[in-house]
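This part of the workshop introduces the protein records we will be handling. Getting from the letters to the tokens is the skill we practise here. The record below serves as our worked example for the rest of this section.

…
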Amino acid sequence: MVPRGSMTDPSIAISNLRDVPYFADDIAERVWRAWWEPRGFPLDHIAGLVAGNLGDHHIPFAIVAHRGATFIGTASVIDSDLEERPELGPWVAAVWVEPTFRGLGLGASIVRHAAEAALATGVETIYLCALPQKRAFYQRCGWQLDEKDVGESRLDVFSMRRS
């Protein structure tokens, strides 16, 4: 199936998970399979973390791209995402776009929405970490590369500041 649409497609919405909580299971399953299942974490643990996004606090929260009831992608904003940099935060994390919707600019839009929403809470700086092969993507999206080769996974650390 080749999806129609892009971020210029008005049928694709980007919402806070608090407004569309029925996507919590989709987020938990995708995030768990991508990052946590290979490390032996149970799905219930990740589902609990995702449920934490439904509270009435500023952070954590999750952003969801969807077309009606069809889940397209997500990004979360969390307090801490990199054990080696506990002093930094908050972070945009767990960025996921369904494979059939990749290449349409949705990932960049989801990340931008998450970062803008975090900055709107009053924080001065938001962070993101990624594998080096994603460096050019995040730089094109306006993220500042702050560090390279951090931790065992040799991640890049990016930041975005409130203007």
About this structure: The CA atoms of residues 16 and 79 lie 17 Å apart. Residues 106-120 form the longest helix (15 residues).
